[in-house]
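Morning!

This is the sequence you dropped in the shared folder:
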Amino acid sequence: MNYDEPAAIEWPLLCSHLQELKEGRSVEMPTYDFITCSRLDKTIRVEPRDVVVVEGILVLADKPLRDMMDVKVFVDADADERLIRVIHRDCIERGRTPQIVIDRYEETLKPMHELYIEPSKRYADLIVPQGGHNRVAIKLLTDYIRSLLPSFKK
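The structure's back. Tokens below.
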């Protein structure tokens, strides 16, 4: 199974959990083991909040999920930066060799990015260039979210 394509995501479960959170009910979020590529029995209890962030490289690829979002943000990182992050994460955190990581990047990650992730940014309300280094975009987004919160409204 290719875990870098939309078919790998349980969209109905994710949408159901988001709806539950929006209605003020907690959910038991599944956990995943990236070493064994399998779901664990353990779950994480997620409590409803005024702001719920749904993050992931594929979240804008699913229309029902997109339709549930108040704000859709695409964090646009440079291809070199993405590759460096993958090498760092997979070699250090997941114990893979650099060659395995490079092969996986060329055979799976890059094609899936071009097929699903890059095109999904057209659905974003805000595209943040330079990833997390774009302080102006982050401030704009933070200010917008604060404006929606009851505790910040005047």
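Headline: Strands lie at 27-33, 38-46, 73-76, 126-129.

More detail when I'm at my desk.
O.
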